[in-house]
Write a structure and sequence with these properties.
- The structure holds two protein chains of two kinds.
- In chain A, the strands form two sheets. A two-stranded antiparallel ribbon of chain A has the order 1-4.
- Chain A is 71% helix and 4% strand.
- Chain A is mainly alpha-helical.
- In chain A, helix 1 (2-32) packs antiparallel against helix 9 (253-273).
- By secondary structure, chain B is an all-alpha fold.
- Chain B has a single domain, classed as ABC transporter involved in vitamin B12 uptake, BtuC (Orthogonal Bundle), CATH 1.10.3470.
- In chain B, 71% of the residues lie in helices and 1% in strands.
- A two-stranded antiparallel sheet of chain B has the order 1-2.
- In chain B, helix 2 (28-53) packs parallel to helix 7 (175-196), helix 3 runs antiparallel to helix 4 and helix 7 (175-196) packs antiparallel against helix 10.
- The model of chain B is unreliable at 337-341 (pLDDT under 50).
- The chains are: A mainly alpha, B mainly alpha.
- At the A-B interface, helix 3, helix 4, helix 8 and helix 10 of A face helix 5, helix 9, helix 11 and helix 13 of B.
């Protein structure tokens, strides 16, 4: 019983990472119907930005004197990483995707560009900073709470809380604010929206800012929970989050979160009952099964194609 | 006379390569580059069938390659290798010379059946979903192989060198070069005949507009299924060759990076063009060898090239055109005016 609760907590933590990343896929897909394959690597970049920000603020580079308390460093690292990662996401949009969109290129070409941008980020990072793994500094001491045999760290609670708050925040932004409604409108009809006086490009940039900054948030939290960074950390987790987003029904915020948590649960439960090498096998088989039963995903809406 | 040009050129090319390999005119390094070139040509032209001609987006080509590689090498080692893991050789070693194409075909068949399993759930889903299904399938395949201890699991599988040496005992020629060459010719002929057949025209129709194609009485499900199976089967053959050329395989050789390599080759050469895909496979292999001293850097440069290509010439170098469309003189030489271009 206690191990079950322990596993559920672990699953919630992993589900939070997957959800926060899946969100970026889902927002961009909803607006542009483009699979932004570079998103996993944007998550990686977020973790790296956080690493550089934290080491800089801790005074390890020698520019500013050391001695800043850990919580203050964390409080500054999160916005720094979010801003820099959003800048990266928007740069990709401006440099790679927008020119193609202007030319009216086929969607496939944009997808390939996204895939290649991801490879450039991964290997560019590897070429610049080398293959040695980076150790993320401990910013906040871990406190372990024990409640009747179940142990919870403050970090785990923070991760889950952040994911839930992000969900509520995004649900509000996309559903209630003007720019969120513009995002929905673009996903509904891309050609009529500019005619209504909605600045499409601004909305698209905003989408990339949202998606990338939440990927950065996931990156910071991930780096704090598993403090070893390597350039390919975003690849596998990114693909998995993408599959989670699709299973949830790509294009819907609720779907991204549901898919992310579902994947987290399946993976942790598989590891709890089977040898851990079966994790990918069983997790992906279950997801494929769901997709073949419900092709649009859990919360997706089928769109009819007209000739 | 003109009809004989293509077979004549093919046979003399094969003779030239074999003679050069036997007399050591090209050293072992360039021989292996040539063989990988051939394998890459098969990979690229077969992926081109789905991603180029049919306009779908499959990113799990390495998975099918893995199926082919494992099935053909496990079969070969079990049947022919002395002291094989299923209790010794069941067939004498000299038979490998005749059985090798069958082993490759068995691998291809297994990969085609896997392709069938992957293609089935993709009927009901929209275009982008095939990408997910193929990615997930390639992870499932890789993970399955890792969990089967009998074929070595994550440690990999070896013993293929015994088969190749059994072949050289019969007659000392570079057999693998011969088989790679034969498989490349087989692949190119099959794909060319498939694409230009009446049924194959349906593939183009599916790319241009699936619903309209269906209304025009193209059996889209069948077209998708057959094309996908053909493509993955050929990838399986490429995988089998890959296993025997290297002599050692492990699940780590068939990751998403391998699939990405195949995609780069397809999009570099141009979608829907057989000669484009084949030539870009040649160029890509050479490029990888030239950039080898750069190590990681090559994986920055190659994606950069592709990004620039997408910006300025998104249809690839050839882009739905064959070599014969670009050089009409070539077509006259080959006597293909009647092909109805």
């Amino acid at each position: 019983m206690e191990s079950l609760i322990q596993n559920i907590l672990n699953a919630l933590q992993w589900g939070s990472f997957y959800s926060l990343i899946a969100l970026g896929y889902c927002l961009v897909y909803g607006v542009l119907s483009l699979i932004n394959f570079a998103h996993g690597d944007i998550f990686m970049a977020g973790a790296y930005f956080a690493f550089f920000g934290a080491t800089f603020l801790l005074g390890k580079t020698g520019v500013i004197p050391p001695g800043m308390p850990g919580w203050a460093v964390l409080a500054l690292t999160i916005p720094i990483s979010m801003i820099l990662t959003s800048a990266l996401g928007v740069t990709l949009e401006r440099v790679a995707y927008r020119p193609l969109r202007r030319k009216g290129a086929h969607k496939l070409y944009v997808v390939i560009t996204a895939l290649m941008c991801g490879l450039v980020l991964e290997n560019g990072n590897l070429a610049l900073f080398g293959a040695s793994r980076k150790n993320f500094p401990t910013l906040v001491p871990q406190i372990v709470y024990s409640l009747g045999g179940v142990s919870v760290t403050n970090l785990k609670v923070a991760v889950i809380l952040v994911a839930v708050l992000s969900f509520l925040f995004l649900h509000y932004v996309v559903g209630k604010t003007k720019i969120g409604m513009a995002m929905q409108a673009i996903s509904y009809d891309r050609f009529a929206v500019p005619l209504m006086g909605i600045p499409t490009d601004t909305v698209i940039v905003f989408t990339f800012v949202l998606g990338s900054s939440f990927a950065a948030l996931a990156g910071v939290l991930f780096a704090m929970s598993y403090p070893v960074l390597d350039p390919f950390m975003g690849a596998l987790i990114g693909w998995k989050a993408f599959i989670a987003a699709v299973v949830g029904g790509i294009g819907s915020i609720r779907g991204a979160f549901a898919g992310g948590f579902l994947l987290g649960f399946v993976e942790i439960m598989v590891v709890a009952f089977f040898p851990s090498t079966f994790r990918d096998l069983i997790a992906f088989s279950i997801l494929l099964l769901i997709l073949s039963l419900k092709p649009t995903g859990l919360f997706g809406v089928a769109r009819r194609t007209k000739i | 006379m003109r009809r004989c040009i293509v077979p004549l050129v093919t046979v003399s090319l094969l003779g030239l390569i074999l003679a050069a390999s036997v007399t050591d005119a090209i050293n072992f390094y360039w021989q292996s580059v040539l063989m990988f070139m051939g394998i890459n040509i098969i990979l690229s032209t077969s992926l081109n069938l789905v991603n180029g001609n049919m306009g779908e987006f499959s990113c799990g080509h390495a998975g099918f390659m893995a199926v082919g590689a494992y099935v053909s090498s496990v079969l070969a080692v079990a049947l022919f290798a002395p002291g094989g893991f299923l209790g010794g050789p069941y067939l004498p070693g000299y038979l490998t010379v005749f059985a090798f194409p069958l082993l490759l075909l068995a691998g291809g068949l297994a990969a085609a059946v896997t392709g069938l399993l992957v293609a089935l759930p993709s009927f009901k889903t929209r275009g982008d979903y095939l990408a997910i299904i193929t990615i997930a399938a390639s992870y499932i395949i890789k993970s399955t192989i890792e969990n089967v201890g009998a074929v070595g699991g994550a440690r990999g599988f070896m013993g293929m060198a015994k088969i190749t040496s059994a072949m050289t005992e019969v007659w000392n020629i570079p057999w693998m070069m011969l088989w790679v060459f034969a498989a490349v010719v087989f692949t190119l002929v099959v794909i060319r005949r498939y694409v230009s057949s009446t049924f194959g025209k349906g593939v183009d129709a599916v790319r241009q507009d699936e619903i309209a194609a269906e209304i025009m009485s193209v059996d889209t499900d069948r077209v998708k299924l057959v094309t996908f199976m053909l493509s993955s089967g050929l990838a399986g053959i490429a995988g089998g060759l890959f296993a025997f050329v290297l002599g050692y395989i492990n699940p780590g050789s068939f990751t998403i990076i391998k699939s990405t390599e195949a995609m780069v080759m397809v999009y570099l050469g141009g979608m829907g063009s057989i000669s484009g895909a084949a030539l870009s496979a040649v160029a890509f292999t050479l490029l990888m060898e030239v950039l080898r001293p750069m190590q990681v850097g090559k994986w920055v440069i190659i994606p950069m090239m592709l990004i620039l290509l997408m910006q300025f010439r998104p249809e690839g170098f050839f882009g739905h055109r064959e070599l014969t469309d670009i050089f009409p003189g070539l077509r006259r030489l080959l006597g293909r005016e009647e092909s109805g271009k």
